[in-house]
# Entry
Amino acid sequence: MTLTFYKYQGTGNDFVMIDNRQQIFDKDNTKLVAFLCDRKFGIGADGLILLENHPEVDFKMVYYNADGNQSTMCGNGGRCLVAFAEFLQVVKHETTFEAIDGLHYAKIQDNLVHLQMKDVDSIDTFDTHQFLDTGSPHHVQFVKEIANFDVKTEGAKIRYGQPYNQAGTNVNFVQQENEDTFTVRTYERGVEDETLSCGTGATAVAIAMHDSGKSAASQLNLNVPGGQLKVSFKKDNKTYKKVMLIGPATQVFKGTITC
# Structure
């Protein structure tokens, strides 16, 4: 089987994109997904995303982690898929699509993709960290000297430890730079390593920083190893609404692979 694919990246978070509107891809073949995401033997990516038809909205997003398993929402992947959908002329400038956590509105403006994330109404605060779900589960923790921090080792300990265990969580380590800017490094479950960027992670950090009083701004800048993301929101009582993840999404190349 020869498969046509596209490679996209959003602040260094990279994805294999496949137009699956004709249902050509075997969605139950986890070994195939893992092979395509493998950086040594396949194409190489943090995840694989299928664009599929949807009966009511513009398209459907089906997301797989690099380990081959379908997973929870991926913010940067969603932004890249919107750019891919515009490239395929499925949408123009704005869209509504379905992902695993529900419907998402998005628009492309000034070469940036603005993706509306789910509302967040529950944030658990502990002495050492915060925990919240922004479409995927996220542990948010402050560290010192983040540039020298061992994200992979420390992130894995938290990801597999109590109370998360095998189901796991994504782990974000944070350092504040000023009133509205934070540096973030993320260990992603499913990738089982640090990634250059995590969209749901940046969203979780922004909301956690506002909720904890670290910043009063309603739009925050998140510096990640792969660039910069912005997250804006409105707080209505205890619920964060109109949460927008904003950043670039770029097509890297198109290719074919025999598998």
